[in-house]
Amino acid sequence: MATYLDFEQRLKSLQEDIDSATMSNDKTAVEILQKDLHNEIKKVYSNLNDYQKLQLARHPDRPYALDYIELIMQDSYEIFGDRHFRDDKAIVCFLGKIENERVMVIGEEKGRGTKNKIIRNFGMPHPEGYRKALRIAKMAEKFDIPILMLVDTAGAYPGLGAEERGQSEAIAKNLQDFSTLKVPTISVVIGEGGSGGALAIAVADKLAMMEYSVFSVISPEGCAAILWNDPTKIEAATKAMKITPQELKKANLIDDIITEPASGAHRDKLQAAQRLKTYFLESLEQIRATPNFIAKRYEKLMRYGSFQ
Questions:
Q1: Distance between CA 110 and CA 167 in Å, rounded?
Q2: Burial class for 142, CB neighbours closer than 10 Å (0-12, 13-18, 19+)
Q3: Entry pTM
Q4: CA distances from 138 to 13, 80, 165, 253 (A)
């Protein structure tokens, strides 16, 4: 059953009317209501504030990494384990094909349903997850396979065990080694990109964001708690932090924004996946056509944080 946010209630009402008219075989009513729904979608999604975009980035119906992998990959084969401690289910790694391109996909997976969310640790990786991602990236480099990374996490897991096993070192090692990989790398924030947990698989030749995703150094709740000692001031924090794709593109912190279907990726997963696939293939072609793309990647990373 579809989930509707507060600002989507009018859409829910119209969809229910369409379903009722369809069951009654009232084709005229269905046609009128579908036009009304289309107009309402344009009205709602063209006037979203930053907090509403944050809500969409966290929408429970939004496609996760495994959804995209299933929709865009063929002959996919999952690879497990970091060869040091264990397999971290919060990060998934697949070898397969996208169209005719061999590709390695590394993604953060939040999981659906209580049981699966617990297994995936709500998409918050442990250090072994980042070490698995790096192991797979090095494997891709060895066999000259491009890498697609799908970022979707509230942040790296902050538990005692994760800290004991070197959470910060694992993230720092990924930042260092991903910056020098000798194969094309493309990273896409598909939902929520939180702090170092997102950065660990976001160092790439191309860094893009889905239209209704967010990318931040800390969660808006955490920011509100620190600045105002009041976690309820999440809307003010979201606006102040400038975490939407549009703001980050202005600041030259991301390369591209992938436009989502009119009603968002959570309402049309297939079309969203198609757009992500098209972006990956076009970006891969651009990177391969760039002389010495590794040096270009380094130059781009060194420009982060510069100002006049």
A1: 19
A2: exposed
A3: 0.93
A4: 50, 14, 21, 25
pLDDT in tens, 103-124: 999 999 999 999 999 999 999 9
64 half-sphere exposure, CB direction, 13 A CA radius? 20
Residue 245 phi, psi (nearest 5): -55, -40
Amino acid at 297: R
pLDDT value at residue 306: 67
**What is the C-alpha radius of gyration for the chain, rounded to an integer number of angstroms?**
20
**pLDDT, tens digit, 9 for 90 and up, residues 47-89:** 899 999 999 999 999 999 999 999 999 999 999 999 999 999 9
83, 135 Cβ separation under 8 angstroms: yes
3-class state of residue 32 by DSSP: helix
Q: Within 10 A of 10 (CB to CB), how many other CB atoms are there?
A: 15
Taking the C-alpha atoms of residue 101 and residue 97, their distance in angstroms, rounded to an integer, is 5
Residue 154, number of CB atoms within 10 A of its CB? 22
For 148-170, how does the pLDDT look when each residue is reduced to its tens digit (9 = 90+)? Answer: 999 999 999 999 999 999 999 99
Instruction: List, for residues 168-215, the tens digit of each pLDDT value.
Output: 999 999 999 999 999 999 999 999 999 899 999 999 999 999 999 999
Helix, strand, coil percent content, the chain, rounded in steps of 5: 50, 15, 35
Q: At what angle do helices 27-45 and 9-23 cross, to 10 degrees?
A: 170
**Chain length of the chain:** 308
- Cβ(231)–Cβ(221) below 8 Å: yes
Q: Are strands 91-98 and 74-79 parallel, antiparallel or unpaired?
A: antiparallel
Reduced 3-state DSSP string for 150-205:
EEEECCCCCCHHHHHCCHHHHHHHHHHHHCCCCCCEEEEEEEEEEHHHHHCCCCCC
Is the pLDDT at 305 greater than 80, yes or no? no
pLDDT value of position 303: 87
